[in-house]
Amino acid sequence: MSEEEKMSYSEAIKKADMSVSRFPLIPVRGIPLMSLIAKNWDSIWAFRPEPSDLLIATYPKAGTTWTQEIVDLLFHNGDAEACKRVPTHVRSPFLEIFCPPPIRSGLDQLKEMDPPRIIKTHLPFQLVPPGFWENKCKAIYVARNAKDNLVSYYHFDCMNMTQPDPGPWEGYIPKFMRGELAWGSWYDHVKGYWMEREKRNILYLFYEDLKENPRREVERIMRYLDLSVSDEVVSQIVELTSFKNMKENPMANYSCISAAVFDQSISPFMRKGEVGDWRNHFTPEQSKMFDEDYVKQMKEVNIPFRTLI
């Protein structure tokens, strides 16, 4: 991004600050989505990707940005400078996002890009535009254990001034359990992609595996994308996408987003990136209640989640 483009982008964000608010959630086919997404749903559903496009899908706060950076570096043979050309959300547009003008929607950004494009979504499987599957696009899904995902989403909702106020922690847990947050039920989300992974050739990854052995998972992604980079480049990608390095990378840490949208004085966009941080938030009573409900909601599948590594 040139200096002129950066200034233009910053000015657009400042102008948009005037109309930023915590947008209400409106159900789309039973899934609560931010009102601007719901109002533009027809154009999102009609999106037609190119067969070479790649979809990166996650429930919010499950390792999306991490995966976007890994993929971009793989496509650029580990070239760190190439991957600092613009912020993550410009390199890899957010398919369904609609913001107050003059900020461009994900669809507008995608129209200006040549394939192959890296496309991000938080949509559950049943709301992904059918063109992705009709064109046999590759898709990477990243899932994070429910408790850590809940904690991360709570802190994100506290600092994200565009989603409904999360309220107190003790009230947020049942909202998560009932699927009343933006993009709906975590349980249905992870199950939906899991059950379709073989039929749709979806690479299903786990956040905990990425933390435990990032090199192994980067190599899995590389093979899935039919790419080949040297062992040295893989090592470089692992280093560049460590939590510490990404947290300090202004092109990945969302520091270019105005505090009127993401107030990082409340909580950083990249907060901890740990497995097991849920133990610092759940009381024993809350954990017991959550675990009992989890067994009921996940009884029909056996997805190998880990809450500790």
Automatic annotation (TrEMBL):
UniProt-recorded Gene Ontology molecular function terms: sulfotransferase activity
Enzyme Commission (EC) number: 2.8.2.-
Cytoplasm found in the keyword field: yes
Domain (Sulfotransferase): residue spans on this chain: 51-300
InterPro entries listed in its UniProt record: P-loop_NTPase (IPR027417), Sulfotransferase_dom (IPR000863)
Record localization: Cytoplasm
Keyword set, alphabetical order: Catecholamine metabolism, Cytoplasm, Transferase
A matching Pfam family: Sulfotransfer_1
Family: Belongs to the sulfotransferase 1 family.
Stated name of the protein: Sulfotransferase
Taxonomic placement: Eukaryota, Metazoa, Chordata, Craniata, Vertebrata
Gene that this sequence comes from: LOC116045506
